[in-house]
Amino acid sequence: MTPLPLLAFTLVRDIDHILQLDSERMASINSILVLKLTAIFCLIIFPLLLSSINADQNSNFLYDDDTEDQDEEWILDTPFSYSNLRGKSYVAKIKKGTSCDTKKYNICNGVPANNGTSMLYCCKNHCRNVLGDMNNCGVCGKKCKFGQRCCGGVCTDVVYNRMHCGKCNNACLPGVPCDYGYCGYA
Predict the structure, then answer these.
(1) What are the backbone angles phi and psi of residue 168, rounded to the nearest 5°?
(2) What is the C-alpha to C-alpha distance for residues 151 and 97, in angstroms, rounded to an integer?
(3) Alpha carbons 155 and 147: distance in angstroms, whole number
(4) Which of 2, 29, 70, 170 shows a CA-CA span of 20 to 30 A to 81?
(5) How far apart are alpha carbons 186 and 179 in whole angstroms?
(6) Cβ of 50: how many Cβ atoms within 10 Å?
(7) pTM tops 0.90, yes or no
(8) Is the pLDDT of residue 61 over 70?
């Protein structure tokens, strides 16, 4: 019998035994019971918590967010100017999620940024990088499926793709397979 089921079996047996004892011995048995419950917690729950924390850090391909675009702002490759009430203004940076309007205030209409690694478009009144946004991949409104990331404007499998393993442009070493978003998963 493995240690974990054996521990659970002895815990149930001890609880049954406690119910049959008098109150004098209950205090000493309660401390033993607390120790066993603590051991179960350490053997079962604590490793589960650690694995879920590691999964959050390492397997970002499972989550539908903009982790590829973690920059708070995009630096435009070519600053542009526009007229406002105070005269002419120059824009060199656009913050992530900046409001825009395709008719009135379209500051992100196919604007290249971050040395060509980003392409900004106005999607649902917010500036989005269509080269890395999973909800606007390549064009506004095109969502990538589960297990895919937006790599260069194309929804790409990152679960089994050796060139994009777990995230975009994360290539595995030659001969090492990509399984479940990890190079050389075993």
Answers:
(1) -65, 140
(2) 19
(3) 10
(4) 70
(5) 8
(6) 10
(7) no
(8) no
CA distance 142 to 137: 5
CB 102 within 8 A of CB 126: no
141 torsion bin: left (phi>0), alpha (psi -120 to 50), beta (else) = left
E-assigned strands of 35-167?
73-84, 87-95, 111-113, 118-123, 126-129, 148-151, 154-157
pLDDT tens track for 28-51: 667 777 777 777 776 776 566 655
Rounded to whole angstroms, what are the CA distances from 29 to 35, 88, 114? 10, 80, 65
Q: Residue 97 has what DSSP assignment?
A: T
**Mean pLDDT for all residues in the chain:** 76
Read off the amino acid at residue 137: C
Other C-beta atoms closer than 10 Å to the C-beta of 65 total 11
